[in-house]
């Protein structure tokens, strides 16, 4: 089965306006998938949609919405009723504020949980059912090294990414036998426009456009993710992080998931 047959004809990219999400859109368009592009800012989405249509001859839909809104998943799914979605890439959800839990209003943490946990879970439940019925499809959920352990200024964000990691792993266990590939993509330091801006705001660089030395490129992250889609459940899309975790955790996440799955079957049955 070709990539287009497995994951087409349409893909959704949540968080497509810049950075890794935008590059995912470009690579998937190059592979012939039609795209639903989702983000908060209309102008970048319209520009990207027009560019991809012209360059690759695909169909696109630009959907502007705040994915932290309570009705976000319902509104997005209403835009998809007339198309067959074979791939969900959920890369929205970065925390641009990076401040202490008690230094910010509670609504800020609640928005992170809504955007990073509830909405992707709701989308996976709806779209995963359709994919499983067809016996093909794919889901890529973005995690983060922040989800491996707690750290200051990332209380709700780190916890939400721990949820995403375990959710993706468990979903992989259930959907893989049904022909649907699930990948929890854990990002480390990645040279995105958002990280460049955050470093500049915190006095760590001289310009909001200054590349982040030593960080992975967005192209590496996207190519690595697609190369490992189907090999899930978890992929660390950062070479330094993969090396470091071998020292901290002798067993890989994938091995741990396999052990957990076998133990669960012994106790609960298939």
Automatic annotation (TrEMBL):
| InterPro entries associated with the record | NAD(P)-bd_dom_sf, SDR_fam, VLCFA-Steroid_DH
Q: Which GO terms describe its molecular function?
A: oxidoreductase activity
| UniProt entry keywords in alphabetical sequence | Oxidoreductase
Q: Which family does it belong to?
A: Belongs to the short-chain dehydrogenases/reductases (SDR) family.
PANTHER family to which the protein is assigned, alphabetical: RH59310P
Highest taxon of source = Bacteria
Q: What is this protein called?
A: SDR family NAD(P)-dependent oxidoreductase
Entry-linked SUPFAM superfamilies: NAD(P)-binding Rossmann-fold domains (SSF51735)
């Amino acid at each position: 089965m070709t990539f287009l047959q497995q994951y087409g004809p349409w893909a959704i990219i949540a968080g497509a306006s810049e950075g890794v999400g935008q590059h995912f859109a470009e690579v998937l368009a190059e592979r012939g998938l039609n795209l639903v592009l989702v983000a908060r800012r209309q102008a970048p989405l319209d520009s990207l949609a027009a560019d991809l249509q012209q360059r690759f001859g695909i169909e696109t839909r630009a959907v502007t919405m705040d994915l932290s809104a309570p009705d976000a998943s319902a509104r997005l799914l209403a835009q998809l009723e007339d198309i067959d979605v074979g791939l969900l890439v959920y890369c929205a959800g970065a925390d641009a504020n990076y401040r202490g839990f008690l230094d910010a209003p509670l609504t800020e943490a609640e928005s992170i949980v809504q955007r990073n946990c509830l909405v992707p879970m709701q989308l996976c439940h709806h779209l995963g059912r359709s994919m499983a019925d067809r016996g093909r499809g794919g889901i890529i959920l973005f995690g983060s090294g922040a989800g491996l352990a707690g750290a200051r200024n990332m209380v709700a964000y780190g916890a939400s990414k721990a949820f995403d990691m375990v959710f993706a792993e468990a979903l992989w266990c259930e959907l893989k036998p049904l022909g649907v590939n699930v990948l929890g993509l854990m990002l480390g330091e990645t040279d995105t426009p958002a990280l460049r801006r955050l470093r500049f705001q915190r006095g760590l660089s001289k310009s909001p456009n200054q590349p982040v030395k030593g960080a992975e490129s967005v192209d590496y992250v996207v190519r690595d993710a697609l190369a490992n889609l189907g090999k899930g459940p978890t992929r660390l899309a950062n070479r330094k992080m993969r090396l470091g975790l071998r020292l901290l955790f002798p067993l890989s996440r994938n091995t741990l998931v396999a052990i957990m799955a076998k133990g669960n079957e012994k106790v609960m049955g298939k």
